[in-house]
Amino acid sequence: MPAPHTTSYHHGDLRRAVLGAALEVIASEGVAAISLRDLARRAEVSHAAPAHHFKDKAGLLTAIAIEGFDLLAAAVDAVPAEEPHRLRELGARYVEFALGHPAHFEVMFQPRLLHADAPELTAAKDRAYAALRAGIEDLPDARRTQDARRAGLAAWSLAHGFATLRLSGGAPELDPDPVTTFRTLVTPGGGERTAQALAEPPEGV
Amino acid sequence: MPAPHTTSYHHGDLRRAVLGAALEVIASEGVAAISLRDLARRAEVSHAAPAHHFKDKAGLLTAIAIEGFDLLAAAVDAVPAEEPHRLRELGARYVEFALGHPAHFEVMFQPRLLHADAPELTAAKDRAYAALRAGIEDLPDARRTQDARRAGLAAWSLAHGFATLRLSGGAPELDPDPVTTFRTLVTPGGGERTAQALAEPPEGV
DNA sequence: GTGGAAAGTAGGCATTGACAAGATCTGGTG
DNA sequence: CACCAGATCTTGTCAATGCCTACTTTCCAC
To answer: Which of B81, B147, B151, B194 has a CB 3.0–4.6 Å from the CB of A197, allowing a cystine?
Structure first.
């Protein structure tokens, strides 16, 4: 590893530097504000240097998305199997990841900005989805519904929607910590039976 | 109203033409693919003409977002008060709107692309949110939870997340119609008690 | 009709993404 | 140690875009 900030011809770790700068810009100003030339300036290299590491602007964003899916997989993989409220915990980790890595999250679900068919991307996506599925399908028998896919989709939608709304400034901040808010949303008897209210059973008043 | 397609100096309704073209482009290629000059070409006017109607690129997107919030307000406003599964129906309408107006929906929740503090935008947003809130808070007493805000946030998150995942190609297509899928997610006894699975009550196996 | 505002045109400028061709460094191989 | 292939970075260029200013044409209210 060369000295980090000499005036050497080679940067040392330009790839990481550009990724880092990109994450900062996206987090503070959004993906639309990303410019390869600006990132090059921040890293103090020539305007074409980043292209040698990412090929494209889409390539850069693809790299971020890949990193994001791997981070997500790691985050939900850490949920212990013996956790009594495992599905709830899974959702909480999902929300925690989204709010903790807003730049990654913003890019991951915008396939039109990426090289959506890049093998490394689909691989990372598969790993993340596998980790999520594992957390759902490994529930003890009594907790499994007839159609686990729908339960999983519902849980995913809830966590994803909450995180998205929170990040876009839509959802109100009801607690000091957003993850706490999320937990109350899926915790019956935690003061309010929101899940039941959601289901709103048909049998009368 | 002048003749629509003569070679007259004035277009007739350039504003609407640009909006329409923009909606098409966004729906098929995403917001990132929007270019004022391209829209001008499609409308067969000079490259600077659209600016006289929207000021900015952000101004154009703001106009789309405003239209979107008004469409949303209209969509959820149509839910009859006597509807027995009103909250569920509210969510279904939300999802139906999102999937039926993907371009509007894509822009509405990306404030960084808009003139977020434009009075007309916040007004439209307020109208839409008021319509949504009305559908939640008007629930009959027995259906009301202690904290209606959390129930509303949960419902909103679920609908928003489902729509978002569906549009980004993340969620699997379990039924011919996505709205049908959404209904099953919030319908207990509709084959699976997904809502209960979500809540996953703590009391043992 | 006429004058001013609205609608549209024309040109220019800085910035950007992508590409091509060349310069420089690095690591391994003989 | 010499050397070379490839990775890394630079420089220059081109078309496209957003936005600005100045100008022209049309419409409408008085």
So the answer is: B151
